[in-house]
Amino acid sequence: DAGKGGYDHYMLKEIHEQPTSLRQTLRGRADPATGDIALEDFPPGTFEEISRVQFVACGTSYHAGLVGSHFIGSRGLPAQTFLASEYAVSAPPVDENTLVVGVTQSGETADTLSALRRAEAGGARTLAVTNVVGSTAARECDDAMFIRAGPEIGVAATKTFSSQVVSLSLLGERLVRDVVGRRSDDTQDVLSALADLPDHVQRILDYTKAHRVAKRYRDSDSYFFIGRGSVFPVALEGALKFKEISYEHAEGFAAGELKHGPLALVTPATPVFAVFTGRHDRKTLSNMKEVEARGAPVVAVASETNEEIVQYADDVLTIPDTHPDVAGILANVQLQLLSYHAAAQLDRPIDKPRNLAKSVTVE
Ligand code: AGP
Q: Which residues pair with 145 in a beta bridge?
């Protein structure tokens, strides 16, 4: 209990550690004033030979990888994210100009290690993005980048997801500069948003209404999460966290896919959590209205200044205004809190959910 620092669970402690862990992840690596990026082992030019990037990962780390490939791909460098367990059995072609990035908190996940070994055997260059110095992934890959989130005890990954996404944004910016040959147009805006991130997360922790929202929708049949673009992975992550610790049925969908099938599941007993970033909001708002028309309660996770969304939603979990590519990290913190409180109200064993392990070392 001493290790929980006064919190009821490690998960809650780790959620609250995020302002500190994010500062550690960022320390010395980016200067918003000049736009400079300084990644210890990756000076400018490190990735000049690379022509495409593939991320391999599992679970929460897979969702971070999806955010990473969206970030890089939208800035002109071909990038894809694969579930490591699938990559290990049906890998796409690679060559010496392919960078395969294993995203793994523990650095010990068997599926991710298999995928990285397969990539290496195919001649790709490999890089581990991990929290654990000396882990198998860090040792076996050609290079390693450490996310510096500090130890994470709760089986549900929280602070490491945030630090993974920040690390992949910085790595992504380095890659884009080396390969595309110029800074992203919005580099300084992204770096400023990252610099503000620890304070923004603190603001969410201080003012969240997630416990009230969790209580209000406690007896629902299922919980759905939707997002578009950079926050489609946040919808997936919100649902994974929710099912993992509350044992309630939850699913994440690309907002635009609802009408292609999942809408049949939507009823007044299926609250829908819609994530907004300030980009593509109009389309996601129209998806939100589609589920409302079927009687589902809608909880928007959105900027505190977006009055139109606030007006249509039944409840709002607000996030500070920031760059759209950083907003997902903030929205995810609200969803971490939502899952935590839903599970706590159901008296679940939050730090050790049934059937799950912190590190999965079998394929
Ligand atoms: C996250 O809450 C899960 N416990 C799980 O999905 C985890 O992210 C996955 O097993 C990958 O672990 P890794 O990051 O250590 O490779």
A: 129
